[in-house]
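Let us work through a complete example step by step.
Step 1: write down the sequence.
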Amino acid sequence: MTALLSYLIARGIEKEKLFGAGIAPERVDQLYSDAEPTIEEVRTLAKRLKVPARELIVPLRLGVENRAKLRSNFNFVKDDLGYFEACSLENRLEELADLLNPVVEIPFFVNFPKDANSAEQLSMMFRTNLLEVDYSEPLLHLPRLIFDKLSVVTFLFRSRIVDGASYRKDRSALIAIAERNDIRMLYTLAHEISHLLTDIDNDPAATVWIDENVFTSSANDVRESEFFANEFAACLLIPAGGLVAELKRLRRQADRPEQLSAYEIAAIARKFGTSFVVAARRCESLGLLDRGGASILDAEVRNRFGSAEKFADAFDMPPREQVDWQYPSRMALDALEYRLIDGELSATRVHELLGLKLA
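Step 2: predict the structure and record it as tokens.
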């Protein structure tokens, strides 16, 4: 099967979508019958489908589960699109690891207990000992921090199914984050860091952890790891000391009721870069909200304002600071500059791998 046909089938792209690209219907039928496309057809379809031409030319290496220790929180083997995206992502991670060969100094915590107290402890240890940041500092520059301090390269990719992935091989570590909004992506990044720390052991063979949706898990065998990664992400992004300090600051500014308010939770969410519901659940886990209070407040805010972001805007809260997701890729590209100048590497391919646009 041609690489083009494999891509079209996996993505569920109907013939009609190709007609609008200017390719004759009879030729489209031939391409769907496994005919080899011409270079001009590949260029036309790549532009139409908004993907690199290479994806329509080079066959994807399938069988990811035979090349790496693979863990996932969704049953992609029974899902053609999920399996295609998992293999595509693994191919990219493997190629980037070989290309960049980053030496990462992150300890392994695979035997660490997976409960709420451990998540609190590990997140604080990660902040203070590895990232070397203040206990209360927002981690809105987390992609930059883990690159500068730990040499972990984060890059962006596009996917309809996969939210993120963690990868280790020898002494290299990579994290892939699907393009969503900053709130979700930052939480996904913190979630993937947990997998790097606690779910991938010190094995010279490649290990990949692929997440479909970091907020839920349907696979029983990884449920504990997913719940812990979510707990770790919340603790890392909203440290207890930072939350309390922000709450005291808000209450000094205005005479507020003793009971925690939706306004205060929204302000905490904006300061630390999380969603309203993550901030509310963090408050709940710290005993600042009654059990079940996070869901109730989130529902009320949505019902009255449509979304937590509109609620925050209605009170003129400062806008969220944008996260620089391209920083690790730019720095990795700079390190490869001499190889690009010498023609040893393809500039186009390196930019594709790192999720960067050619200047």
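Step 3: interpret the result. The chain has a mean pLDDT of 91.
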